[in-house]
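Re: beginner question about structure tokens

> Can someone show what the tokenized structure looks like for a real chain? I only ever see the sequence side.

Sure, here's an example I had lying around. Input first:
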Amino acid sequence: MAMLPLSDSLHKNRFKLLSIMTKTNLQLTACLLTIIINVLAGKPSGKEQNTLQKAARIHHKALTIDSHNDTPMWFADSSYNFASDHTGLKPTMRVDLPQMEKGGLDAAFFAVFTGQGTRNEDGNKAAYDEAIATFNAIHKTVGENSNLAEIAQNSHEASRIVKSGKKAVFIGLENGYPIGGDLNNINTFYQLGARYITLCHTRNNDICDSSTDSLEHNGISGFGKQVIERMNTLGIMVDVSHVSDKSFYDAIALSKTPVIASHSCARALCDNPRNMSDDMLRALSQNGGVIQMCILSSYVKTPPPMPERDSAMKALRIKYNNFKGLSDTDRASARREWHALEDLYPQPLASVKDVVDHIDHIVKVAGIKHVGIGTDFDGGGAVIGCENAGEMGNITLELVKRGYSARQIKLIWSKNLLRVMKETERYAKHHHSATKNI
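And the corresponding structure tokens:
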């Protein structure tokens, strides 16, 4: 259900009332929506009512997929319950099953994230062990809520799972670092559910150069070429978020399937190396790939300087060894202290309108078939009007206000991403058939 911009005093009532609006009865939902608006917020104009009802209908009919969140980082924390509503609680936790239901979010890619550490045998082993632990935590958490959620293994399962009344949980590996030097680890990650691999994170690894590190490989390394080839043959999407510009162009040239950027924005609107230039957007379009619009505010809109926050964050990184090699207890403490600093020094947030400005730009440059949504919730993602999974409908509402059709909105919410996923699966299937006949 599209969340509506009601006043702060109505915030709690809004969540309670919208929680009863499921995808089972669209006419009833539209009726309830109108009643709630009239009673709680004052009757809007006829045109506003029509827009709100139209957005609600479209959002309910669309299969909605968020291509990236970092919520699994909470799964090892004993205080986190995937089935509990964390709206308004501290520390801020932006994704759980109740919030997904409120926001009409049907499916999401949950990231197995590993920060970049030392690139040697010990570092690779530690990264691999951490990744396996996170994979296991995702399967355990979903298994404990099997009546409400299910792991999705391919592009076709999201629709089946959602029709059964559950949320679909996809898995992506953020940072290829845990692969180490062993291509067989990619097979292991695939078997555990990984359906995309973000080639690197904020620093270079053995696969490629990062967008926020110095030049080392001049793009994709020799080993990285083998990694992409193995991903193609298994049916794992190549994710180019975080990679350097040269790594991006190399990945497009090397991959036999279209690539994705699971959580990135347009550089023309926010000049950040994590974002994609117009030339990159055009190349992505020609490749058949898709950029999933990230709602991490500093990628959406350049933030004003905040030296106090920067100093505090830097001190925390030093205290916790840049978050490398931490025990579960220390990692949980570091996470809580990080969120406490975010609350103490809140950054001015971009808005849903700013997010859709990026979507408008991407559509203009790359085309409607090459954009989606990848929030980066629980990894920094949040904008005014969409601060958690319970408010995802506000993106649909803004798209409707700007004249996007139901067909276009469905493309943005899942069809573009699923098209790439299907092409990736198709290539892997044909590859296996071809090698069998050799």
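Each token stands for a local structural state, so reading them left to right follows the chain. The chain has a mean pLDDT of 89.
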